[in-house]
Structures are given as structure tokens and as C-alpha cells.
């Protein structure tokens, strides 16, 4: 795309020019910008991932700000182009901002925004969905059924892992990791072990209170532990879910050596960022350990998967959909429903 051809313009006479590299859900953001005297240009190109060159063409000679996407490489080149065009702000429509070189933005005097906190429950719910799907072999069983292979109930058909009483391990117990941990502890009465650079006091308090509640009701209380090392989580947990940010310290956090430390029948879930796992090493591990299962929402080189992954029955793969949910808000007037999108 040498020159952007497909653009939708809102409020053509607006004083400030803001570019959105993609159409986004709803109209509230559009109205907000228009109210603030913005001429908004939304790129409506069919191409899913815009290149740096495409975005430079969109920025043009005068641009006050850009709203971009996690698929774009916001580094030196783009911040330099935005700054030359008079731009002062870049907003990443994502919680994760590993695609943004914040140092480069600072160098060119461009303020950076992201959307922390808006996807906590939806991402945790997808991680929980992948956990259940992997534990109970839902995708394999669905394929079996549709292939017409079911010829009657059998005691050993698609035996999976029962979650109750097992240990869930969370790596990165921030907003999403903590929400996921609560779902698994409260929903399935799992014990918790977590690893994070910081203590997750609220999570610990929640599990302690829930354990007391179970005990008071004559049930086995759940337990929690903050691990001193990540390897402790890998060795002890039956389910491990990854929720750290992606940065230099978490790149290939799960590699060949660490996979080998996990239980042979463990389940690994990744709804953070693909490069947190060495995906080629994961493919090898899955091949040699058929009882080890994985649920992935994110991949090392999206939109691609490493060779061999798609053929493996012990892998569940979905196309980065953790954010893709809509919320129905019931107003005080029960007859009016509002959708987030
Ligand atoms: N799949 C999807 O659609 C989505 C993915 N995400 C990803 O989830 C990530 C986490 O989001 P939040 O929970 O909101 O962020 P957060 O900042 O609340 O939590 C991240 C946690 O990771 C921990 N951490 C950082 N380095 C670590 C290390 N080396 N080892 C262990 N823990 C480490 C931090 O201390 C923090 O507690 C985002 O950065 C983003 O990449 C977020 C939203 C949707
Ligand atoms: O917001 C994020 O970080 C996402 O990955 C959205 O899907």
C-alpha cells in the first residue's frame, strides 16, 4: 500500500488530524474525538496487518495523533515519522504494549497510551475456557463425534483430567493472572501456586478467605503458595497459565529446559503473548509427551504457527480471541439492554 486508498473521514473540518489504523468497535470513541475538534481518518484497507511503510503513508505530512493496533511495529521509524508530521500522541488499542518502543516514543516527544484493565475478565475467561477444553479434551471429542466415529459409550472414551483438588499455577499474577486464579480456585476448588516479581496480596487474601469459607462449610479448604522461583510452579502445578507482560525478561520464559520440568500430564495455557513460549520447543515437547496438553490464544509469529503445531491433537489453538467478547449491561430499566460493541 504505497498510498492509502481506503479511508473513512469523520468531521472533515476538524482542527486536529488523528488517524486510526483500523476501524474499531462502537462510535463512542469517534464522538469523543469529534467533540474535541478532531478530523478523524480511519483506514479501512482490507489488509489485516499494516506495514511500517503503510502507516508512514497514513501519517502523511500533518498528523497530530495516531490510534494503532498491537499488530503494528511502533518503533523508531514510526515515531520519527509521527513527530515530523507534528504528532504528539500515540494510543495502542491493547493492554499489552510490547509492540511499542516506549524509549523511541520518548525520544521523539510522543506520549503513549494503552488500555490496561479493560480486558481482565474476558482474557481470564478465555484462559479458563482453554483450560477446561484441554483438561476434558473437548476439541478432540468434538472432532471424533463429527467424524461419525462414536458408536456407543465406553468407560475409557476421552478420559481427561479432573480439576477439583489439583494445583493451578499462575505465572504473572497481575490483573489477568489474578482474575484467572480466582476463577480456578473458586470455580473448581483448585489449590494455587503463583510466581510473580511482586506479591499479589489481594489474591492471597481472597484464597485465604475462600479457604475459611469452605472449612466452615465442612469442605476441604483450598491452599495457596507464592513460589520463590518459577521452576517451583512448573514442578508442582497440574495446570500452568501464563499471564506476564512480554519484555526481555519474559521472552522464551518457557523453553525446552523448563518444559522438561513440568509434569508429564500437565496442561499449559498461554493467553499473554506468543514469544513467552519457545514455540518450536513446545512442538517437540508435545510430540514426545502425548499426555501433555496445551491451550494457546497467542503465537510466537502471529498469524503463523510453528511447523507441526496444527497437526498435534494435544494442542488447542485459537486465533488471539481473548478480548473478543461483548458485555450485556442490564439498565435499571429491564427492557433496555446495552452492548459494549
Ligand atoms: N490474549 C489477549 O487477547 C490478551 C493478552 N493480554 C496480555 O496479558 C498481559 C498481562 O496483562 P495484565 O494482567 O493486565 O498486566 P499486569 O501488568 O496487571 O500483570 C502482568 C504481571 O506480570 C508480572 N511479571 C512481569 N515480569 C515477570 C516475570 N519475569 N516473571 C513473572 N511475572 C512477571 C508483573 O509483575 C505483573 O504482575 C498483557 O501485557 C498482554 O500482553 C492482555 C489482554 C488481552
Ligand atoms: O489488549 C491486548 O493486549 C490484546 O492482546 C488484545 O487482544
Automatic annotation (TrEMBL):
Pathway this chain belongs to: Photosynthesis; photorespiration; 3-phospho-D-glycerate from glycine: step 3/4
E.C. numbers: 1.1.1.29
Transmembrane segments: none
Main location: other
An annotated Gene Ontology molecular function: glyoxylate reductase (NADPH) activity
Lineage: superkingdom: Eukaryota
Keyword Hydrolase among UniProt keywords: no
Keywords, sorted A to Z: Glycolate pathway, NAD, Oxidoreductase, Peroxisome, Photorespiration
Protein name as catalogued: glycerate dehydrogenase
Organism: Glycine soja (Wild soybean)
